C-alpha cells in the first residue's frame, strides 16, 4: 500500500483521469518506435517481464489484491479464465521470482542461483505465466482500470503483451488473421469493397455530399460513417437516421465515401500496431487534404471506437480533430430547438452504455437526455454508466469466436430483460450487433418477447419527430 501514492502520482494521464481512451504509444528502451524506420534493436511489445517499463513494474507492485477489478470484469463474470487481479499478481510474482536472475551481473552470481530461480527465469511470459486464453479474453472495456483504487493500468499491459504476440511471435487467434488481411487489403474488417461504402446513401430521399477534395465552405461537418455504419445492415439504419436528423436540423455535412478507411481501432486493440500505423497514415493523409483550408476540423461519428481513435489516438500522430459523437451533436440540436420532438414514443426502455463512449470518454448524459426528449421512460439496468457491463465486442473480440463460458452479450441482455423494456437503446454499432444477437438468442429460448427491439438513440429521436 505504501507504493499506492507513487503509482497514483505517476499515472498515465496528467489530468488525473484513469488510463483509458487513448492507448499509449509503443516504446522501446523508453523511446517511441519509429514505425517508418524501426531500429534493429527495437523491442516490440512486452514478451518478457524485463521488457516492462518502470511504471509497469510499479503497477504490479502496487496491487492491494482487493478484487474490485475482478468483480467488474465481463470476462471473469462469464466464466472466462481472465481475472484482472490474478493477471497483475501473476506478473508481479513472476517479476519478483525472476529478479535474482536479472540482477545477477557476473557468471559467478548466476552460478550461485538455485534451480528454482533458474527455472523461473526460463518460463515464457505468454504461455507459462499468462496463458493465451487469458490474454485474448480481454475486451479492453476498461472496467478494471475504472474500478482500481490505486490506478493500475491493466488494459495497457494486456495490449502490450498482445503487441509482442502479434508483431514478434505471430501468435494470435486464427480468426484475427482474416480480420488483419481484410483491413490491410480492403480497408475494413468485413473485407467489403470500398465501392459499397456509399450504398446507404441511395436509400435516402435527399442528397448527401460526397467529398472528393477539400471540404467546401458551406459544409460544417465531416460525417465519418465508419466501417460498421457503411457495411453492417443494422448499423446502416443508425447512419441513415443520423443523416436524416442532421438534414432536418439544417446541419450541412459531407462524407468521404470510398475515400474512407478503417481508423485502425481493431488492429491496434488486437496488438497489430504496424497495421494500425498504416491505416492511420492513410487516413491522416486523406483528412489533411480534406481539411487543408480549415483551421477547425469538425467531425461527427456514430461509432465510439472511431470517436476514440480519431479524436484521441490520432493526436499522437499529429492530427488534431474536433470529434463529436452523434449523441452529443444531436443533443445540442435538440437544446437549440433545431430538432423538436412532437410525437413522444412513450415506451419503457433501458439504455446500454457503450464502454468506449462511457468509461473511455465519459459521455453518459447526452444519450439519456436524448431518450428523455424523445418521450421514452428510462429504466436503468443495475450496471449502468461507469459500471456498465460490456457487450463483448471491444478489443477486437468482435472478430473472435467466444468459445469459453457464457456469452458476454447474452449475459448483458439477460440483465436488460430484468427492466422489462420494449426497447434496448444503444449508441454504438458494435453494441447494436452484439445486443441484437443476444436478444435473438433469448427470443429463440422464449425468454424475451418477440416485440423487443434494439434501436440506436438516433432512431428513437427520429421516431419522436413525427
Spell out the key features of this protein:
5-stranded parallel beta sheet, 42% helix, 4-stranded parallel beta sheet, 8% strand, single chain, 466 residues, alpha/beta
Write the layout of secondary structure elements.
Blueprint: H1 4-9, E1 27-28, E2 31-32, H2 54-62, H3 68-72, H4 84-103, H5 107-111, H6 115-122, H7 132-135, H8 143-147, H9 154-169, H10 174-186, E3 209-210, E4 221-224, H11 227-231, H12 233-248, E5 253-255, H13 265-269, H14 273-290, E6 298-301, H15 304-311, E7 322-325, H16 326-335, E8 348-351, H17 365-373, E9 377-378, H18 408-417, E10 423-426, H19 429-444, E11 453-456, H20 457-464
Parallel strand pairs: 3-5, 4-5, 4-6, 6-7, 8-9, 8-10, 10-11
Antiparallel strand pairs: 1-2
Helix pairs in contact: 2-4, 4-6, 12-20, 16-17, 17-20, 18-19
Strand order, main sheet: write it out: 3-5-4-6-7
Major beta-sheet overview: 5 strands, parallel
What structural class do the secondary elements suggest? alpha/beta
Give the radius of gyration: 23 Å
Euclidean distance between termini CA atoms? 58 Å
**Number of DSSP helical runs:** 20
* Low-confidence regions: none
Kindly report the average pLDDT value. Answer: 92
Task: Count the E strands.
Answer: 11
* Global morphology: globular
Helical content band: 40-55%
Strand content: 5-15%
Would you mind describing this structure in some detail?
With 466 residues, the protein is α/β, with parallel strands linked by helices. The protein is 42% helix and 8% strand. The protein has helices at residues 4-9, 54-62, 68-72, 84-103, 107-111, 115-122, 132-135, 143-147, 154-169, 174-186, 227-231, 233-248, 265-269, 273-290, 304-311, 326-335, 365-373, 408-417, 429-444, 457-464; strands at 27-28, 31-32, 209-210, 221-224, 253-255, 298-301, 322-325, 348-351, 377-378, 423-426, 453-456. The strands form 3 sheets. Strands 3-5-4-6-7 form a 5-stranded parallel beta sheet, with helices on both faces. Strands 9-8-10-11 form a 4-stranded parallel beta sheet, with helices on both faces. Strand 10 (423-426), helix 19 (429-444) and strand 11 (453-456) form a beta-alpha-beta unit. The longest helix has 20 residues, at 84-103. The protein starts with a helix and ends with a helix.
Amino acid at each position: 500500500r505504501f507504493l499506492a501514492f507513487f503509482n497514483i502520482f505517476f499515472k498515465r494521464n496528467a489530468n488525473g483521469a484513469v488510463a483509458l481512451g487513448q492507448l499509449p504509444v509503443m516504446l522501446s528502451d523508453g523511446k517511441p518506435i519509429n514505425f517508418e524506420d524501426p531500429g534493429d534493436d527495437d523491442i516490440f511489445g512486452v514478451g518478457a517481464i524485463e521488457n516492462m517499463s518502470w511504471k509497469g513494474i510499479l503497477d504490479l507492485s502496487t496491487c492491494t489484491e482487493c478484487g474490485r477489478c475482478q468483480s467488474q470484469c465481463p470476462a471473469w463474470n462469464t466464466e472466462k479464465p481472465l481475472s484482472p487481479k490474478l493477471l497483475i499478481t501473476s506478473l508481479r510474482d513472476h517479476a519478483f521470482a525472476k529478479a535474482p536472475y536479472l540482477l545477477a551481473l557476473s557468471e559467478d552470481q548466476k552460478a550461485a542461483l538455485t534451480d528454482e530461480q533458474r527455472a523461473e527465469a526460463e518460463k515464457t511470459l505468454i504461455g507459462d505465466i499468462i496463458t493465451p486464453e487469458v490474454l485474448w479474453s480481454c475486451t479492453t472495456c476498461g472496467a478494471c482500470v475504472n474500478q482500481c483504487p490505486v490506478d493500475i493500468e491493466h488494459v495497457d499491459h494486456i495490449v502490450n503483451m498482445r503487441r509482442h504476440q502479434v508483431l514478434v511471435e505471430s501468435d494470435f487467434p486464427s480468426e484475427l488473421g482474416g480480420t488483419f488481411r481484410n483491413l490491410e487489403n480492403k480497408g475494413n474488417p468485413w473485407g467489403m469493397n470500398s465501392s459499397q461504402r456509399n450504398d446507404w446513401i441511395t436509400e435516402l430521399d435527399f442528397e448527401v455530399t460526397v467529398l472528393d477534395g477539400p471540404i467546401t465552405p458551406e459544409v460544417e461537418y465531416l460525417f465519418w460513417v465508419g466501417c460498421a455504419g457503411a457495411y453492417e445492415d443494422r448499423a446502416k439504419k443508425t447512419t441513415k437516421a443520423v443523416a436524416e436528423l442532421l438534414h432536418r436540423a439544417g446541419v450541412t455535412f459531407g462524407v468521404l465515401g470510398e475515400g474512407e478507411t478503417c481508423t485502425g481501432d481493431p488492429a491496434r486493440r488486437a496488438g497489430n500496431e504496424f497495421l494500425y500505423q498504416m491505416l492511420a497514415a492513410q487516413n491522416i493523409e486523406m483528412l489533411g487534404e480534406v481539411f487543408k483550408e480549415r483551421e477547425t476540423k469538425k467531425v461527427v461519428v456514430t461509432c465510439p471506437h472511431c470517436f476514440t481513435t480519431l479524436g484521441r489516438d490520432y493526436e499522437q500522430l499529429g492530427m488534431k480533430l474536433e470529434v463529436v459523437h452523434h449523441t452529443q451533436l444531436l443533443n445540442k440540436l435538440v437544446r437549440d430547438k433545431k430538432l423538436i420532438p412532437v410525437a413522444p414514443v412513450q415506451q419503457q426502455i433501458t439504455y446500454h452504455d457503450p464502454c468506449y463512449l462511457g468509461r473511455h470518454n465519459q459521455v453518459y448524459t447526452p444519450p439519456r437526455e436524448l431518450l428523455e426528449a424523445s418521450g421514452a421512460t428510462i429504466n436503468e439496468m443495475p450496471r449502468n454508466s461507469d459500471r456498465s457491463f460490456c457487450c463483448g465486442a471491444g478489443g477486437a473480440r468482435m472478430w473472435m469466436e467466444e468459445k469459453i463460458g457464457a456469452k458476454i452479450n447474452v449475459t448483458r441482455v439477460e440483465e436488460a430483460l430484468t427492466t422489462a423494456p420494449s426497447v434496448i437503446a444503444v449508441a454504438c454499432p458494435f453494441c447494436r450487433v452484439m445486443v441484437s444477437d443476444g436478444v435473438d438468442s433469448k427470443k429463440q429460448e422464449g425468454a424475451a418477447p418477440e416485440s423487443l427491439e434494439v434501436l440506436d438513440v438516433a432512431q428513437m429521436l427520429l421516431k419522436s419527430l413525427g
